[in-house]
Amino acid sequence: MPATPSADHTPARGVAHEQVTSRPASATRLSLSHITAQNETNLLGTVHGGVVMTLVDSVAGVVAARHSGGPAVTASMDEMVFLVPVRVGDVVHFTAQVNWTGRSSMEVGVRITADRWDSVSAQVHVATAYLVFVAVDEEGKPRAVPQVVPETDEDHRRMREAEIRRSHRLARRQAIISSREGTE
Ligand SMILES: CC(C)(COP(=O)(O)OP(=O)(O)OC[C@H]1O[C@@H](n2cnc3c(N)ncnc32)[C@H](O)[C@@H]1OP(=O)(O)O)[C@@H](O)C(=O)NCCC(=O)NCCS
After folding, report:
1. Residue 166's domain spans which residues?
2. Which residues line ligand 1 (CB under 6 A)?
C-alpha cells in the first residue's frame, strides 16, 4: 500500500470515497522516474532489486488508490524477472496502469525501463511486474471498485492476459489447498 491517509485505513479529512462505476484505463495511468543513487546498491555495485520493487509497489499503489477512489492494499505480486541490471546514476522509469478489475481487486501492471546515465543509447527494458491490489474500506474490508474500461488494442490485450494470470493464481491456490488436504 502506498502512503495512504492513515495506517488504519481512515481517509484523511476531506477525502471521501468516490461513487463511480467505471473508469477508462487511461484515467489513472501514471509514470514515475527515479535517478538511482550510491546508497541503493547491492554488493555487486548495481542497484538493489528491493529498491526497484519498493518503487513498483509505490507507483502501483497510487494507481490503485486513484482508480478505486480510496485506500487499496497490496494483496499479491507476481513473479518479477529482472532482465538487465540497473546501474547507479541510471534514470529508471515506472509506467503503471490498471489492467483488470474484479469486484474489489485490481491488477496493476508496471513496466520498468531505464536510461543509462552515461550514454545516449536506446532505453532498456528492466522488468515488468503485475500486482493485485484490493480496495478496502475504513475497517480494512474489501469494497467494490469501478470497472476498468479498456480503450486501445493494447488495453484489451492487457486485460485478456490479466484474466489468464488471475485464473492461474486461483488454480494454483486451489491445487495447493487440495494437495495439503491430501497430506494432512
Ligand atoms: C487483501 C485482503 C484485504 C483480502 O481480504 P479477504 O478477506 O481475504 O478478501 P476476500 O477473500 O473477500 O477477497 C477479496 C478480493 O481480494 C482478492 N484476493 C484476496 N487475496 C488475494 C491474493 N492473495 N491474490 C490476489 N487476489 C486476492 C480476491 O480474489 C477478491 O477479489 P474480487 O473481490 O475482485 O473477486 C486481506 O488479505 C489483507 O488485508 N491482506 C493484507 C494486505 C496488506 O497489508 N498488504 C501490505 C503488505 S505489507
Report:
1. 22-183
2. 1, 73-76, 102-105, 132, 134, 136, 140, 142, 169
pLDDT at 125 over 80: yes
Where residue 36 sits, what CATH number does that domain have?
3.10.129.10
Region of poorest pLDDT, from 10-14, 41-45, 103-107, 152-156 = 10-14
Mutational test site, ligand 1, from 100, 132, 134, 166, max ligand atoms within 8 Å of CB: 134
Please indicate, yes or no, if residue 92 is contained in any of the structural domains: yes
**Would you list the DSSP string of the chain?**
--S-S-TT-PPPTT------SEEEGGGG-EEEEEE--GGGB-TTSBB-HHHHHHHHHHHHHHHHHHHHTS-EEEEEE------SPPBTT-EEEEEEEEEEE-SSEEEEEEEEEEE-TT---PPEEEEEEEEEEEEB-TTS-B---PEEE--SHHHHHHHHHHHHHHHHHHHHHHHHHHHHHHH-
Number of domains composing the chain: 1
